[in-house]
């Protein structure tokens, strides 16, 4: 996926969160969006996902040299973020089945492989509402990273993860993101230090 932003700005009421964003996210490259709390990382991620319309300027999505209408971007996208909730009523088995109906997993990955990758096989019949916050975060990340989509957005990926969880996240990135367009919003180096490009939000504040 290629994403081109021209003169993009976002305003909530009278406050401009960002202005004059001109950048191109190139296919199969990895980008980090950085900036202090409240600077607008999530706002930019939501615009990059097609879920939020800019107040000013234009965003164009292109896949394999064909334009993608903003209403269809979600079909090519996997997105994990604190504000995108899991369905808490489902058990893990049900959540994986439900997810696969809309977004198949990569290659030959079956539910059994996903349990193994997640590392909590015993929780298969547990409702997600009873998962710990770290387990929920692992599940969110696995659903997004293991999906077979060309475009992947991760907002604050290591929230609630312990040291082992952070290493687990980095290994998933290494194994399952080759050839995909990856954008990570975070303030924690370990989340994004492997990204080729860094986009610092404060530069768009003026
Ligand atoms: N729906 C909304 N209505 C009004 N203001 C909003 C809305 N969403 C975000 N904002 C404001 O936009 C600014 C940027 O918020 P955003 O969540 O994008 O920042 P962030 O860089 O992701 O922050 P954090 O690191 O704390 O997650 C904040 O001042 C926030 O209050």
TrEMBL record:
<feature type="domain" description="ABC transporter">
    <location>
        <begin position="3"/>
        <end position="204"/>
    </location>
</feature>
<dbReference type="GO" id="GO:0005524">
    <property type="term" value="F:ATP binding"/>
</dbReference>
<dbReference type="InterPro" id="IPR003593">
    <property type="entry name" value="AAA+_ATPase"/>
</dbReference>
<keyword id="KW-0067">ATP-binding</keyword>
<dbReference type="GO" id="GO:0016887">
    <property type="term" value="F:ATP hydrolysis activity"/>
</dbReference>
<keyword id="KW-0813">Transport</keyword>
<dbReference type="InterPro" id="IPR003439">
    <property type="entry name" value="ABC_transporter-like_ATP-bd"/>
</dbReference>
<protein>
    <submittedName>
        <fullName>ABC transporter ATP-binding protein</fullName>
    </submittedName>
</protein>
<keyword id="KW-0547">Nucleotide-binding</keyword>
<dbReference type="InterPro" id="IPR017871">
    <property type="entry name" value="ABC_transporter-like_CS"/>
</dbReference>
<dbReference type="InterPro" id="IPR027417">
    <property type="entry name" value="P-loop_NTPase"/>
</dbReference>
<dbReference type="InterPro" id="IPR051782">
    <property type="entry name" value="ABC_Transporter_VariousFunc"/>
</dbReference>
<dbReference type="Pfam" id="PF00005">
    <property type="entry name" value="ABC_tran"/>
</dbReference>
């Amino acid at each position: 996926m290629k994403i081109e932003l021209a003169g993009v700005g976002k305003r909530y009421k009278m406050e401009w969160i960002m202005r004059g964003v001109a950048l191109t996210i190139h296919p199969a490259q990895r980008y980090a969006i950085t900036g202090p709390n409240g600077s607008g990382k999530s706002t930019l991620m939501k615009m990059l996902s097609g879920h939020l319309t800019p107040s000013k300027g234009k965003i164009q999505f292109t896949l394999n040299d064909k334009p993608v209408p903003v209403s269809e971007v979600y079909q090519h996208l996997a997105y994990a973020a604190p504000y995108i909730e899991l369905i808490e009523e489902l058990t893990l088995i049900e959540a994986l089945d439900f997810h696969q109906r809309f977004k198949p997993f990569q290659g030959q990955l079956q539910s059994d492989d996903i349990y193994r990758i997640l590392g909590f096989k015993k929780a298969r019949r547990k409702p997600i509402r009873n998962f710990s916050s770290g387990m929920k975060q692992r599940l969110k990340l696995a659903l997004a990273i293991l999906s077979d989509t060309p475009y992947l957005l991760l907002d604050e990926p290591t929230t609630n993860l312990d040291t082992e969880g952070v290493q687990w996240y980095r290994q998933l990135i290494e194994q399952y993101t080759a050839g995909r367009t990856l954008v990570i919003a975070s303030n924690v180096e370990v989340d994004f230090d492997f990204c080729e490009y860094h986009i610092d939000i404060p530069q768009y504040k003026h």
